[in-house]
What does this fold into?
Amino acid sequence: MALREQDLDLVDMGVPARVSQRSTARRRRPVHDRAPARRSTVVLLQVVTLGLLIAAWEVAVRVGLIDPFFWSQPSEVVREGRAYIPSAAARADALFTLRSTLIGFVIGNTIGASIGLSLWWSRLGARVVEPLIVSVHAIPKLAFAPLFVIVFGLGTQSKVAMVVALTVVSAALSSHAGTKAVDPDLVALLRSLGASRLQVFRLVVLPSSAPWILAVMRLNIGLALTGAIVGEMVGSREGLGRMIFHAGTVYNVGKVWVGALLLAVLAMGMYATIGWLERRVLGGFHLSDGGSTRR
It folds into this structure.
């Protein structure tokens, strides 16, 4: 059995390799044994911290430090949640928001990533298009929400358009940054071995850009929900954004918090999905120094 460099150093100092291997195994074993405990401890501390914050909020309202008219209180939020969440209106609102968010999220990230990756094929095209993309990114696109409602109506289309507008540019910029991070020496090596540009793109550029694309997808989850909610607040027949806006107009702050919590649940579900996708896509690659190699 081959000796590792660390074992060779120990042998030179008079320590048998077998002893060094056993000592290395003993040093490594507790790390794996303690990992589940640390994760459970972190989760427990998170739950306890959240519980303490909620309890402090309730106590602060009861002793008069916080005005419940503006901020409500946890007990009122629970009452509103019990009344709203089991209703058919809650299911319809949540499904409407989720559908608009997912459709716009997929379209925006797909178009944006395609634009960013396509810029790798032409340096001249990248130099021409990239400043335009940056300029569009600087525009506050939420200001176009009324225009989208006028053009696409009160249905799902206007919310999807709003989500796409918020996610497509960031996806394009991030994916293009991923292509620029590719190791040029690796590309030159493959080209010298006779690889075509398509093969270089498929074997190097695309795998190396995958972490950048997945990272911006995580960022775009919040932007996608923001676009859907703003579109529903501007003009919609249903959706969690419409519910939150209506609850705010009648000063039902407890119901506003219920809507915000439902949005948090949707966001966590989307984060979990992206995390699963990241493990599936990147599981077979070891990315380092702008290149990729199979494990």
Remarks:
- The longest helix spans residues 17-62.
